[in-house]
Amino acid sequence: MSVLSRKTFVATLWVCCALLTACGQGEVTHFAEDEYPQALSDWGIIELDGQRLQVNEAVVVYDLNTALFSDYALKLRTVFVPQGQSASYHPTETFDMPVGSIISKTFFYPKDSQGRLLTTNTWQGDPKAITTATHHLVETRLLVKQDNGWDAVSYIWQDDEAYLSITGKLQRLTLANDEPLNYLVPSRNQCASCHATNHTTGEIQPIGIKTRHLNRETSLYQANQLTHWQDKGLLAGVVEPAPANALWDDNNASLNHKARSYLDINCGHCHNSAGAADTSGLLLDYADHPKIAMGYCKPPIAAGKGTGGRLYSIVPGHPEASILSFRLDTSDPSMMMPELGRSLVHAEGVALVSSWIAQLEGECI
Amino acid sequence: MINTLSTKMLITLAFSVAFAACSQAPQLSFEESFRQALETAQPGDVITVPEGNFAFDRSLILNTDGVTIRGQGMEKSILSFKGQIAGAEGLSVSASDFTIEDLAIEDTVGDALKVNEGNNIVIRRIRTEWTNGPDVNNGAYGIYPVQTTNVLLDGNVAIAASDAGIYVGQSKQIIVRNNRAEYNVAGIEVENSIGADVYQNTANNNTGGILVFNMPSIPQRGYATRVYDNDINNNNTGNFAAPGTAVSGVPAGSGIVVNSNDQVEIFNNRIADNNTANILISSYFSANYAGQSKLAAEFDPYPEEILIYDNNFSGGGTAPGLAYLTQLKDAIYGSDGAFPDIIWDGIINPEKPEETQVICVDNGDAQLLSIDAGNEFKDAGVDMQRHKCTVAKLAPIELVGI
Hints:
The complex is a heterodimer of chains A (365) and B (402). Chain A has 365 residues and is of the alpha+beta class. Chain A folds into 2 domains: 3-211, no CATH class; 251-358, no CATH class. In chain A, 18% of the residues lie in helices and 20% in strands. Chain A has helices at residues 3-16, 188-195, 211-214, 225-231, 255-267, 323-328, 347-358; strands spanning 46-49, 52-55, 60-62, 74-80, 87-88, 102-110, 135-146, 149-158, 161-165, 169-174, 180-185, 217-218, 223-224, 235-236. In chain A, the strands form 5 sheets. A 6-stranded antiparallel sheet of chain A has the order 3-4-6-7-8-9, with helices on one face. Chain A has a two-stranded antiparallel sheet with strand order 1-2. In chain A, strands 5-14 form a two-stranded parallel ribbon. In chain A, α5 packs across α7. The longest helix of chain A is centred in the first third of the chain and has 14 residues, at 3-16. In chain A, 51% of the residues are buried. Chain B has a single domain (48-387), classed as Pectate Lyase C-like, CATH 2.160.20. Helix content of chain B is 10%, strand content 39%. At the A-B interface, α1 and α2 of A face α1, α2, β3, β6 and β8 of B.
């Protein structure tokens, strides 16, 4: 599509949205890259029916082990694979999915009686429990598999519909403690800031659609997700034993496993050996890397004031001297990590990573 | 891929819907239309920035190859990020065949202009500035291409970055010329890069004027840089970098600094009044930054094959920016004396044969002081005989197609 037509398209959004009416619960529709509808409901994946969120029966709801922290937003994830086709299993990489597949992620918060957002999680994963009476819907992001690869796009909720957004939006929301929340809906290009996990090719990839993130039980389907996906025909070729990341708050998992899982999903999309942050030489995806590449006694490269005045990414035994802890524990956009996707500190995540560093052994001379 | 007919139909449809439904189309601000142009860019697009001061509260992102961003002049088209609340850069580019020219990027929270991975990058007549002057809270880098190949930085101005005004990292085939860098911690820094020509720049009033560095634990080791025909004066601004950063160890008063890098040729520069020394050569071990204990095995911490000739030195060396250097200067030259034009930490690779060319100097009566930092300054002294040597000169960098 030419620049002009896309611009025109976007410009008309603001004036024409009122004219567009949501279609009913029908089939999931896969649109080409230049034909994305202005209204999310046209995709047929998710829509509001009155106050209640409806998920098409043709899509599967899923959840991850430890997930990316996104300012305490809750996330409803769905996956759609065209009838009669399936994704192919891989033990470590993102599953190869057929053209026509659509992944959605809806970001929402529980809200109090005054409409202020709560950062506590009372949601058990059932989409039927999401209503606009008790929840604030922020945005729905889609990953759409086209002929030439994955494409990413966001829709921003406004009243009872979500509308296509190319440029993203900084939403100024309010938390229940009256703190402001500068919630950033990513622009199209910003989607690639995380989803181009191989920064050299620049190809967009789903991040969560990997064995180690998906390999868990879900209460919604009372089953292991990989098994469930395979039973539904969504996934083929699962080989046991399949690796599994930890849930960051699982009391039964080891501290090391939880911390590595947390760093994997929060940092590994850039901090991998082909990622945008390979410039730093710091590799935090869940793979076997030399200790120094994982940050042990590793000096920063181009962190600027993001060092927090500290000398190494990880000083074993000393989270208070480790850059890793500092960058997770700040919300200053010029210093924080990840660079994108949060404006609040995930205190529980900082505590996890810091307690992991605290029990690491070794010394940086 | 998309046929013209369907695109036309789409436009027609969009227009007719707009006209049917609306009394007037909304006017997008330049800020919004600029962001939209970046987000929807196609190869070959030229995106223009008019005269004016435009305010942004979040980063701008470009991922499309073959785009030119063109302003009306670095004092006329200003992208201001004062009060930025989201994003780590001003403008972040992940693309090849990229040209940006004739505009300014001011007061970003982090880096002003970052280009991460790409070939054929042209950045010219761009100004990056923190308008409040030197401050540790300024963003780290002004102009920051990293992992780029075939890159031209020409006629830019970089002011008050808390790390480097102009920083070329992990790149290849680089020309940095006609730029002015001032009041940064590092004026111009070439790090872990292969094949750079740095010439006809002015680097005044930084903490360090022009730096050629290598850092460990990153994918590319750098070598082969020529620094020539530059003016490098009065780089005596107090170091305002965040502790822990590589440049936080640069002493105020450094003209040219070579650290852990090989094949660096320094000639025909006018270097004056840099109060630690006009040229400093050091190994990783005396860089005064972290990570001295566990170097990656493949990292070479020793500067070698450094060639210094035909520079015009004057002044400098009178007030070193670090206490131990001041003590040393006072001990050798007296409190009213000055370091010579070149100082070196004197640390060499013990594994290498003695005849290895470390620093060759052919620069009139300019002297090089080895401070013998590896032996607690025991044999600090000048021995110009040791530096009478030659190494092969480097070929000029030729950029292809830009």
